Amino acid sequence: MEVLLADEFGFCFGVERAVEMVEDALEVGAPVRTLGPLIHNTQEMKRLEGEGVATVEAPAEVGRNEIAVIRAHGVTPLVQIQLEQRAALVVDATCPFVTRVQRLAERAAKEGRHVVVAGSPDHPEMIGVVGYAPANTFVVSDAAEVAKLPPLHAPLVVSQTTLKLQTFIEVAEAVRAKADAEPEVVNTICSATRDRQDAARALAGLVDVFYIIGGKHSSNSIKLLAVCKEQCQSSFLIETDGEIDASDLIGVKRVGVTAGASTPNWLIDQVVKRLRDIGNRLNVDTQTSVN
Question: Which of 209, 242, 206, 211 is nearest to 225 (CA)?
Fold first, then answer.
């Protein structure tokens, strides 16, 4: 049984940068607190907790002698101010791709224009973006929701950084039909998300079973699953190697593997090792039954 890895997988630039910034903060010696989970990966968060990183849910939970870390998803300007007023030091680990969306929304709002963001309204990244233009911004999950919006003035159309490209294109077209002027459309899906989705799609058509390693609540991992299912119905989103059901691999010749942008290499290595071990065992069983 072959185990094939997608050409692009695992930690993206923004997540890797955030983890490195937290590890640098630990070297200062003060307690480190992240506002919300640093990344959407339970196992990596447990590893960081073992090194002394704690997660808080509100700025009020940060002590005067503590270092506060803004996670890769970013926060609203108000929350950032609250952190700066409380913490000994604030480390801004917002992904640069997310920062770009925030600045674009802020600029459009200052110009008196509307902002339409394609994404999940409850996602932390979207909450942060709306905070930069609260009176002018609308978050829609798909093109159908655009019809429910009020008239749009010279709108800017941007995207959650982990969205599927097709959804963004459809939202932009729907906004174009509703706006009073040609909208400014800026594709803000990060290159890492696009690259991982493209690589997963290319591999999914060549395998019998596909495993996506990532958090069950991770937006980019869930979208990777959807992309893989387009080509391979036997696609599974798993967080650890313990979730692999060996019975799904009986008679399978090729298995594909990819991982979400918040999945560390050590977790990927564990899954690949387990798959190869299962493949070797199934091969031995097959040869034994034939003999």
Answer: 211
